[in-house]
């Protein structure tokens, strides 16, 4: 399950980055903000999984 969550986190980060970049390219501030939010969500999920790994070892 941890690998699935890590993959999900990475996917959210990449999707967010793409959305942010697209938003900046077309001048859409809302899309840029949504992209940043998705990246932060992915970062938080990744941090949570890293924390779990720390306690397992």
UniProtKB/TrEMBL annotation:
InterPro entries recorded: CsbD, YjbJ_sf
Region entry Disordered, spans: 1-57
Domain CsbD-like: 5-57
Pfam families reported for this sequence: CsbD
Superkingdom of this protein's organism: Bacteria
Record field: compositional bias (Basic and acidic residues): 1-22, 31-57
Family: Belongs to the UPF0337 (CsbD) family.
Designated name of the protein: CsbD family protein
Species, as recorded: Streptomyces shaanxiensis
Organism taxonomic ancestry: Bacteria, Bacillati, Actinomycetota, Actinomycetes, Kitasatosporales
């Amino acid at each position: 399950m941890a690998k699935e969550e890590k993959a999900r986190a990475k996917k959210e980060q990449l999707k967010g980055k793409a959305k942010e970049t697209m938003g900046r390219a077309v001048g859409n501030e809302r899309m840029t903000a949504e992209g940043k939010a998705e990246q932060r969500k992915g970062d938080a999920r990744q941090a949570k999984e890293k924390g779990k790994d720390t306690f397992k070892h």
